[in-house]
Write a structure and sequence with these properties.
The structure holds two protein chains of two kinds. Among the domains of chain A are: about 110 residues; about 120 residues, Tetratricopeptide repeat domain (Serine Threonine Protein Phosphatase 5, Tetratricopeptide repeat), CATH 1.25.40.10. Chain A has 20 helices and no strands. The C terminus of chain A is likely disordered. By secondary structure, chain B is of the alpha+beta class. Chain B has a domain of about 80 residues: Dimeric alpha+beta barrel (Alpha-Beta Plaits, 2-Layer Sandwich). Helices cover about 25% and strands about 35% of the residues of chain B. In chain B, the strands form two sheets. A four-stranded antiparallel β-sheet of chain B has the order 2-5-1-6, covered by helices on one side. The longest helix of chain B is centred in the N-terminal third of the chain and has 16 residues. The radius of gyration of chain B is 17 Å and the shape is globular. Chain B starts with a strand and ends in a 10-residue tail after the last strand. The chains are: A mainly alpha, B alpha+beta. The interface between A and B is large, with 44 and 29 residues.
Chain lengths: ~425, ~120
């Protein structure tokens, strides 16, 4: 006998988004929609262990949620609180809600899911609220899981989600897909949220490994979902490409001891070539849509340069520099400039790299540079390649003092050891 | 994320004229739903098992190709979908929907990742 609770949880994970989205279409309030869907889930947890899992669990949950929604409406909360309409109006509203929910049982509701995404990522919310709400409403993650992923106490995360839902309700954010210029701005916000979720899973090295992996996977799933829902938006495909290409290296990024392995040293046979292929075709799609020069597409194109190289030495650094040049035009950030300097160092030699790094440091200014260990780390690397070993040592020591991340500290300390060992002249650098 | 193969089985004497419009639209709807959820990696229906070719390596290394399926059976895989899911439970939740839409019994198996050999050591 299989564990029914586990089955119900899995059904919830795959059905909750559509459920919430469909109910939100009629309640016009995603917070309420989520609570009603959650109620249906609780009913399933009570009934299914005895009665068995119904033949069509999704439809069952939708029906249960619908009944709750009609009860909710009957109590007149929405009308009393928001409109104060007369009794006949109330009756009509109930009828309409019933009909609309009835229809939503059969209808294709992709548009609802898209509306849910735009609402959860609404710019009226702080970025952390958008992330939490997206994971909750579109990822089917529990508050506990989201709290663990973000390394905050469960209560804090619960508050964050509660405040976000309240804010949406108070600001009367319409449950709709924006159009025109507004669409562009709102797509940007959605993409930012998805990419932040991905990076939290991919880049951070603290926290529970499995939960981190779950975040990256969730972001990828959201990215693929968006690519279906907004097929004409080039940056949607570009972000998906970027995430697929980065995630394809996951298995190669950790050594046997759990230590970080940088790109030049990775065992490329551990890369996931099916995933690379998916990333490449998403990038092509973005380029075909005419978005090749947009920020995510440029970043994906840079990742693609790395993935195409069978060995680190075959990497087309010249092309990577050109792509960073274009990216820097769009987004003159110190981090982009720093990465460009690394590429210049590889393409044109360490002296040119050092010049580019100086330019990046100027762009960053003292305050930003002071908090960012990669500046001295890259500088140390370039100086070492130029044979200026004592300066290199100083820079790497400075970087060690600045990083708070255990894995990065290990890497830097290894580099310092290599510096002490003159036999090891030819160590690759890079991020 | 792990990948799972959902394979649906059909009797060899399956009569395609028994496929109703409802079945077809149910299957399309599920495919669309899987795509909208971002989890479907591949899906396809197979030609009848009678059209399969089977290859066997002899002890001397020679490869013999024969007509017909490898397994003698009355039912064979008729269609397959490869999905991404967090775990077997989640794959099963999708497979439930697949079985309901296609009216075919299905088997779910995890696919483990095999790195491509022969690249940089």
């Amino acid at each position: 006998m299989r564990d029914v609770t586990k089955t119900i949880e899995a059904v919830w994970r795959i059905e909750s988004t559509r459920l919430i989205a469909a109910i939100a279409r009629v309640t016009r309030d995603v917070g309420v929609a989520e609570e009603l869907a959650q109620d249906a889930f609780v009913i399933a947890l009570e009934l299914w262990p005895d009665e068995g899992v119904p033949e069509n669990p999704g439809a069952w949950l939708m029906k249960a949620a619908k009944r709750r929604a009609i009860d909710w409406l009957r109590r007149g909360r929405m009308i009393v609180q928001k409109h104060g309409e007369i009794a006949r109006e109330l009756e009509w509203q109930q009828q309409r809600l019933g009909d609309a929910l009835e229809q939503s049982l059969d209808q294709v509701i992709d548009d609802d899911v898209l509306r849910l995404m735009f609402t959860a990522c609404h710019p009226v919310l702080p970025v952390e609220g958008r992330i939490a709400l997206t994971l909750r409403l579109l990822g089917g993650l529990t508050t506990t899981e989201i709290a663990r992923a973000w390394l905050v106490p469960e209560k804090t995360m619960g508050q964050r989600i509660f405040r976000a839902k309240k804010k949406l309700s108070e600001a009367s954010i319409p449950f709709e897909t924006p159009s025109g210029d507004e669409l562009r701005r709102r797509v940007e916000s959605v993409l930012l949220v998805v990419y932040l979720i991905f990076n939290e899973g991919y880049a951070a090295t603290s926290g529970e490994e499995w939960m981190r992996a779950a975040l990256s996977d969730e972001a990828l799933r959201l990215g693929r979902m968006l690519a279906q829902l907004l097929p004409d938006e080039s940056e949607v495909h570009a972000l998906l490409a970027l995430m697929e290409l980065q995630a394809s290296r996951t298995a190669a990024r950790r050594g046997k001891e759990g230590e970080a392995v940088l790109l030049p040293h990775q065992n490329r046979s551990l890369w996931d070539y099916m995933q690379i292929q998916r990333g490449m075709s998403a990038l092509e799609r973005a380029q075909r849509l005419g978005g090749g020069a947009k920020p995510y597409a440029l970043q994906a194109a840079i990742a693609a340069c790395h993935m195409r190289a069978r060995t680190a030495e075959e990497t087309d650094w010249g092309r990577i520099v050109l792509l960073y040049d274009a990216l820097l035009q769009l987004n003159p950030s110190p981090i982009v400039a720093l990465n460009r300097a690394v590429a210049v160092g590889m393409a044109q030699g360490p002296a040119a790299g050092l010049d580019a790094l100086d330019a990046a440091a100027t762009l960053a200014g003292d305050s930003a540079r002071a908090g960012y260990h990669l500046f001295p780390s890259v500088r140390g690397d370039l100086l070492m390649k130029m044979g200026r070993l004592s300066e290199a040592r100083e820079e790497i020591q400075r970087a060690i003092a600045m990083t708070r991340n255990l894995r990065e500290r290990e890497l830097l300390e290894n580099r310092l050891k290599q510096l002490e060992n003159p036999d090891n002249k030819n160590f690759p650098g890079g991020l | 994320m792990p990948h799972y193969l959902i394979s649906g089985h059909l009797p060899d004497n399956f009569d395609p004229s028994t496929i109703t419009e409802t079945m077809v639209s149910d299957i399309h709807a599920l495919n669309a739903e899987m795509d909208a959820a971002g989890i479907r990696l591949f899906a396809g229906g197979l030609e009848p098992a009678g059209m399969a070719k089977t290859l066997r390596v002899q002890t001397n290394g020679e490869v013999i190709v024969t007509d017909g399926p490898y397994l003698e059976a009355r039912e064979h895989v008729g269609g397959l979908t490869v999905i991404e899911a967090a775990d077997m439970e989640e794959a099963l939740a999708w497979a439930r929907k697949a079985v309901a839409s296609s009216r075919m019994p299905a088997e779910v198996r995890g696919i483990f990742y095999v790195p491509r050999p022969g690249l940089e050591a």
